[in-house]
Amino acid sequence: MIDLHTHHQRCGHATGTLRDYVIEALDKGVSVLGLSDHAPMFAAEEDHALPPVAMPKSEFPSYIAEALALKEEFARSIEILVSTEADYFHGKVDAYSAALSSYPLDYVIGSVHMFEGKDIFDVSRWGAVDPADLPALKSRFFRTVADCARSNFFQVIGHVDALKGNFPELGEVPAPAAADEMLLAIRDSGAVMEINTSGGTKQCGGWYPEFDLLERALHFGVPITFASDAHVPGRICDQYPDVVHVLLDMGFTTWTVFRRGAARQCPLA
Ligand SMILES: [Zn+2]
Ligand SMILES: [Zn+2]
Fold first, then answer.
1. What are 164-194's pLDDT values in tens digits?
2. Cα 85 to ligand 2 centroid, rounded to whole Å
3. Nearest bound ligand to CA 88?
4. Residue 257 DSSP SS3
């Protein structure tokens, strides 16, 4: 089992230490564990711009140092990859690239969390939405994720249709042209798409992305990886067997993992 997307208490909204996640992964027999807590708000002025969302900039060196020490300590039992999940903000990627360039990261996850002025999971954004606008809204979100991929900074593109998280109806809304544009942008950037099982922690349930996007991804040859997006240690590899079963049925054969930025394929099962 692999899991390239996990958090821990430094971000301010997850529980458990890094060591707790490593121990849980060992207990579950995980072979590759990515530590990928939320990156600090590197484009903001303040050290700790959004306390409930991400660690202070000044905390990042100790995060990486602790992750690297765990990688070393447990090297004979589990492969630990050191990463971070960075927010994608249009025009701000350089701030992240500059801040992260000196660290020996295995990969960086690029995720759209803020979209058109609000957090994607903020339920207040849905109060005044006109159902007729939903296809256009979903298309704009997919095009923002496509921009994230086209920045060519990220190796993994996070939860690509998570705008549906707290508005489940959006999952079924068709936006095929923008979806294909996004999938091709991910593939052509050399990045991979997450199969992220944290939908189950939101109103939408299920996974990011929807099955129709998975089928299109297979058609286009978009590589994939597994992401629990665990914010508690117990969610590591959540629903992993179900995901593998569905992917094998669809025709996928491999996961992609990254070591110091280099993509490697490993068999799904
Ligand atoms: Zn989080
Ligand atoms: Zn995320």
1. 999 999 999 999 999 999 999 999 999 999 9
2. 7
3. 2
4. strand
Whether the Cβ atoms of residue 82 and residue 104 lie closer than 8 Å to each other: yes
Q: How far is the CA of 140 from the centre of ligand 1 (A)?
A: 23
Superfamily of domain 2-267: Metal-dependent hydrolases (3.20.20.140)
Structure tokens at 213: 């996007």
- 249 CA to middle of ligand 2, Å? 27
Q: In angstroms, rounded to a whole number, what is the distance separating the alpha carbons of residues 54 and 101?
A: 19
Residue ranges of domains in the chain: 2-267
Q: 41-69, pLDDT tens digit by residue?
A: 999 999 999 999 999 999 999 999 999 99
Tell me the ligand closest to 230's alpha carbon: 1
Q: Separation of 79 CA from ligand 2 center, angstroms?
A: 22
Token pair for 235: 């969610």
